Structure formats: C-alpha cells, structure tokens
Amino acid sequence: MAEIGEGPGTVPEHERILQEIQSTDTACVGPTLRSVYDDQPNAHKKFMEKLDACIRNHDKEIEKMCNFHHQGFVDAITELLKVRTDAEKLKVQVTDTNRRFQDAGKEVIVQTEDIIRCRIQQRNITTVVEKLQLCLPVLEMYSKLKEQMSTKRYYSALKTMEQLENVYFPRVSQYRFCQLMIENLPKLREDIKEISMSDLKDFLESIRKHSDKIGETAMKQAQQQKIFTVTLQKQNNVKFGKTMYINDRIPEERNEIVLKHAFEEEDENEEEVLTVQDLVDFSPVYQCLHIYSVLGDEETFENYYRKQRKKQARLVLQPQSNMHETVDGYRRYFTQIVGFFVVEDHILHVTQGLVTRAYTDELWNMALSKIIAVLRAHSSYCTDPDLVLELKNLIVIFADTLQGYGFPVNRLFDLLFEIRDQYNETLLKKWAGVFRDIFEEDNYSPIPVVSEEEYKAIISKFPFQDPDLEKQPFPKKLPMSQSVPHIYIQVKEFIYASLKFSESLHRSSTEIDDMLRKSTNLLLTRTLSSCLLNLIKKPHIGLTELVQIIINTTHLEQACKYLEDFITNITNISQETVHTTRLYGLSTFKDARHAAEGEIYTKLNQKIDEFVQLADYDWTMSEPDGRASGYLMDLINFLRSIFQVFTHLPGKVAQTACMSACQHLSTSLMQMLLDSELKQISMGAVQQFNLDVIQCELFASSEPVPGFQGDTLQLAFIDLRQLLDLFMVWDWSTYLADYGQPASKYLRVNPNTALTLLEKMKDTSKKNNIFAQFRKNDRDKQKLIETVVKQLKSLVNGMSQHT
User: Fold this and answer.
1) What percent of the chain has pLDDT over 70?
2) 3-state SS class at 75
3) Which of 500-504, 527-531, 757-761 has the lowest mean pLDDT?
4) Which CATH class is domain 423-597?
C-alpha cells in the first residue's frame, strides 16, 4: 500500500540517499540524513520503509553467501582441529627453547649491562673532557692574571680581565667557579687602582726630590748650547773680520784659546748628555694613566695628578728666607723650578690629555708671577754687585732653558731691566768707595815722571796730551795728581762692569749703548760728583789741595770725550746718532770745580781771619811804631806764596780768589775799627792802622796775580783809604761840603762809619791827659769835633728817614 501511494519522483530520491549512505564515510552521513527531514512531509516515514526494505534485501544476500561457503568453513575447522595437536607440541618446544635461550642470555645480559655502563662512563668522560677543554683556557687566563698581578704588570692584568669578561667567561658562565671569578674581578681592579695610585705618589715624591737635579742638568745643557753658539759666532766673526761689542778687552789670541776650550769641553760633554728620561723613571705615570684609561676613570687620574703637581709647584716656588745671601740659594731655587717644568713638558709630549698646553701655560703664568715677585723682593736685599751679576746670569740661563721648552719668558727679561737698575745702584755704591779710597790715597801734587817709559805708561792709561810738556827733559811733572788716571781707569772699569749685565739680554747695540751712557752719566753726576764735593768739604783739604783738585777736574773734564769714544768702540754706535745719549761729565766737573773754587775763597778768607785774629793793637798809643804790624806782614807773605800756587789755576779763578781775599781783608780791618767792643781809639792807633793799610795797598799794587787792569785790586781797600785819609788830614769841611756829590773826595766814607770812629776818638780825648791839656789850649778844635759829630748825626738821621 505504501508503495502504491508513493509518488513517481520520491522513490528515486530515496534510492539515491541510500546509495549515498552506503558509499559515504560515516562522518559525512549527517548532511545526507538531514536532507531526509528537509523534504516533503511524511518523507521520513517513507524513507524508513525504504530503508527496512533495503535491509531485508541485504540479509537475504548474506544468507545466500553463508549457505554457499558453509562447507568450506566446516572443512577449515576440521583442519584446524588437526593442527591444534601439532601447535601444542610446537608450544612445548618453543617454551623449552625459550627457557634454554634465557639461561644462555643471562651472561650476555650481564656483559651487555657492563658494556652499557662503560659506554655511559665513556660518554661522561668525553663530556667532561669537552667541558674541561672549555674551562681550561679560562683557568689559564685567570692564572695568567694572578701571575701578572704578582709581577706588577697591572696594565696587562687589566687587559687580561677584559678578555676574561668578553671572551672566556661567557663560555663557562654556568659554572660556580666562573661566578667566583667574576665576583673577584672588581676587587682586583680596585687593588690595581690603589697600587698604581701608590706608585704614582711615590713617583711624585721622587720627582719632587730630584727636580733640582733635573733642572741643573737642563740648565747646564742650555748653557753649554749657548756657549757653543756664542763661541761659534765669535769664530765666524773673527774669520770674517767682524768685531764683537762684548768685552773688547780680550785679545784675539785669548779669543782663540777660549773658543778652543769651549769646543773641547763640548766634545767631552757630548757623551755625557743626560735627558730627563735618564734621570727619572716615568713608567709609573704611563702605567697609572693606562690603567685609569682602561678602567674608564681617566678624568679622576688627571684631576688628581694636576692637583698634586700644583701643590708641588707652590712648594717649589716658595723660596728660602736666606736665599738672597748666596748665589747657591738662587741656583737651587731656579733648578727646582726648571726641573718641575721640564717634567711637565715631558709629560705633555709623551701623554695624551694628562697635561695639556693650556694647563701648562696656566701653571707657568702662575709660577712666573710668583717668581718675579720673589726675585723682585729678594734681589732688593742684594748689596754686592757681583752677586747681582751672578743672579742676572742665572736668570738668563733660567729663561733660556725654559724658553727652549716653549715657555714664554719675556716678563723675566723685563724683570732684568729692573734688576739692572739695582745692579747699577750697587755698582755706584761700590765705586763710591773706590773713588773715596783713591782720593784718600792721593797726595794732591803733580805726578813726577823720571823716564820715557814711565811717561808712556801713564799716558797709556790716561789720555793726556801737552806738546810743550813733551818737549821738556826728564825728570818733569804732569800737572794732574795720581788720582786722575786712577779715576779715569775706574770709570772705564765701571763701564765694563755695567756692560757685563747687558750681555745675553737679547738687546740691540743701540739699546746697550744707551744703557752704558746712562749708567756712566749716573756715575759721573751722582757718585763721582758727590765724592768730589765731599772731598772738597773735608776740613783737612787745604788751599794747595783745592788748587790741585781744580786742576784735576779740568783734566778729567777734557777726558770725557775719550770716554764717549771708548763707549762708541764697544757698541759700534756712532756719537752722531740722533738718539745717542751724551755724557754729562762736563757739567759734573764744572760743578765740582766751582765748588772747589768757592771752597778756596772760603778757606782763604778763613785763613785771613786766622791772621787777623792775631792782631794786637794798642788802641790808646800816642805814637805809631813806624812800621807795619807783624801779623799783617805774615798775612801778606802768606798771600804772596798762595797766589804763586794759583798760577796753575785758570786766570779768572786766581783773579777772583785774589780780589776776594783783598776785599775780605779790607772788610775785616774795617770791622776791627768799628767793633762795638772797642770803645776808644787814639790818633796814634789810627796812624799805626794806616801803616798796615798802606802795606795792603802796596801788596795790591804789586800785582800778586797777573791780569788785573790798573789799580783794580787796590780798589778793594778804597773804603779804608778814604776813611783813614779823612781822619789823618782832618778834612771834615771838605767831607761835609762834598757829601752826596759824585766827585766827592770821600765818596766811599759812610756818615755812620765816620760817626762811629769819631765818637771812639772823642771818648779817648776826654780821658787822655794830653788831650785834656790840648783842650785847654785849643778849645776851638774841640768845639769843631762836637760840631762835626752833630752834623754827622744829622746826616745819619737824614739817611734813616730817607730809607
């Protein structure tokens, strides 16, 4: 019924689904079955019916198949039962064989296990060997590190550490010993830093102690190089006919000897030249620098090194308190400084960054300021020119040495100009003593010459020329005294001494010429002039000595042009050069001569005063002695002898001295008459006094010094002559009548003077018996005196009112 009711298209569809289910994998049946439910209603029931029908068909086919093969199956079972008996026999045999085989394999198993165990050990040994081969280089490197540490090869040790860390440790980092090594490396690095820093401290202490030796060697080499250069230059100048301005006193033969000696010394010292590396082991610095560079802490090392060296620089620059006393004190000071900067220069050139040029320049500028201040202070205590000169030479060598290492030294040469002024001051003080000794040893008398050789010996030392004197026979006398050639020689020696300081100052000949002339001017205008003035003022220097001093200064003044030629020959700078300084010797010796002339006038007047003080007038005598006073005659004789000596003086000087002496004598005699302590004078005393004045006039008219015109010298006594004539002639009427007239006979008589003397005579007439008797006999004359006194007083009062 179901089949009748099926649609024509439904059956093929169900067959297709069944075929698909039979031919499809079980996992893919789901979509096929789902299509059964998705079709028409009741399709499921119809499908199930179709499925049951298909199953029945298959069962039928299976039953047919079994029926077909049943006999074969029965036969197979029968045969199998037959084989069963044989199988049991075979099983027994197999079991027995297996038992016997197991019994036989037990020994093999034991040996196999041994073999396995050996193979495992062999594998383990191989593994151990491989690991040991991997670890052995690490251990060897670490052992090498320990050995480098023990032998103080710290830089190599640091490199070994780097290799361990970068190459070897990564290979064995899983082992414990490697971790221990890794943990120990920082400690080793710190140990290396401490040890290298300790070595650096020892090095710094060592160079501090040896810096003077280093500096001494460097300065010695610089000096030898300079000597070699100078001697070679001298040799070239000698070879080409040139002259040097340095110390022209050395003859050519001596130049050759000095040159030969210098070259021999250079050859001897050539093999002994030491460098700073020979004196100091710089390996601690290099090693420490490399160590800190490897450790990446180079900046710390640089800061420490520079800080310590700055401290050492301050210690080196601190001088000893008594350094100025000896040249060795200055030498030690300079050698220590040179040693310090030679080491710094070496460090600058052999390392990179530890010491820079900026750092050394800063350090040198600081040191240079300190050095200049120290030298300026200590050199001010030096009073010995030889010590100052040695100091200058040390400074020059010091400057040349450091200049050779590239340090600027211009300020040191500027300092030398300050020290040069001080050197000149010490020279001036020294030469002041030399001049004083020369003046004290001089006899102030013309130099006697007894032979031609002696004469030539003197003029070879002093430029003296006198054709008239040369014609005179021997023995003869030179006009100057012994001090003149000695002074001239000492001035030249001073120029040489001043020139010594100018050597090696890198100055031109013009500057040296200017320095020599200025220092020579100071010697002449200050030192020699002061010594001459002090000599002139000394009380034991008499008129004869003063005359000789004037003569000496005249010859020294004439010799000044030869001193200028002397300086010109040294420096090769012509005097016609615009900026050439002239010597002031002319004014110096003129001033000294004027001072000597003034001292002559003063001493001559003092001598006159000494004679006048010997006067012993009897101012109350009634009659004169008839001859001049003894003191006055002695005075005139003295003046005659003195003026004979003055013939060697310039004419004006002798004339001035003679006129001054006569005027002073006239003034002294006038003051004697008008002395306030003299209360009375007799006419006899006036007459006696007149005799003395007559002798003075005779002396003046005798022309004691040539060159006076007419009665010029006699005019010195004109005041006394007119006054005495007025009283001797008693010509008061003429005096009073002509008073104030230019042509007055008694023009030089002052009313006050006449009044003073007249009152002294008036007082005498009152107390004298002879005048008393005269007064009785001739009252008119007494009245005349009183009248004259009144008129003189009137004139004096008129003069006072007019003034």
Assistant:
1) 86
2) helix
3) 500-504
4) mainly alpha
Instruction: Specify the pLDDT at position 802.
Output: 60
Query: Using CA atoms, how far apart are residues 758 and 761, in angstroms rounded to an integer?
Result: 5
Confidence of residue 243 (pLDDT cuts 50, 70, 90): very low
pLDDT single digits (tens) 203-227: 888 878 778 788 888 888 888 887 7
Residue 409 carries which side chain, given as an amino acid letter? V
Q: Of 563, 475, 482, 552, which is closest to residue 523 (Cα–Cα)?
A: 563
What is the per-residue pLDDT for 465?
82
Angle (CA) 318-322-325 rounded to 5° is 125
> Does residue 192 carry a pLDDT above 70?
yes
Supply the mean pLDDT for the chain. Answer: 81
Report phi then psi at 104, rounded to 5: -75, -25
For domain 641-800, the CATH superfamily is Dsl1p vesicle tethering complex, Tip20p subunit, domain D (1.20.58.670)
Closest CA to 566 of 249, 237, 238, 243: 249
Residue 695, H or E segment: helix 683-701
- Of the pLDDT bands very low, low, confident and very high (cuts 50, 70, 90), residue 41 is low
Look up residue 679 and give its DSSP letter. Answer: -
432 vs 576 pLDDT, higher one: 432
Angle at the Cα of 54 from the Cα atoms of 51 and 60, rounded to 5 degrees: 145
Can you give the pLDDT at residue 256?
41
> CA–CA separation, 605 vs 639, rounded Å?
11
Output the pLDDT for position 360. Answer: 87
Rounded CA gap, 725 and 694, in Å?
A: 11
Separation of alpha carbons 40 and 52, rounded Å: 19
Q: List the domain boundaries for the chain.
A: 44-155, 195-231+278-407, 423-597, 641-800
Which pair of tokens denotes residue 308?
Answer: 């310590």
* Sequential DSSP letters for 467-483: HHHHHSPSSEEESS-TH
Which of 751, 760, 763 is CA-nearest to residue 788?
751
Rounded Cα gap, residues 340 and 333, in angstroms: 11
3-class state of residue 266 by DSSP: helix
Torsions phi, psi for 449 (to 5 deg): -125, 125
CA atoms of 72 and 100, how far apart (whole Å): 41
Is residue 796 packed enough to be buried (19+ CB in 10 Å), middle (13-18) or exposed (0-12)?
middle
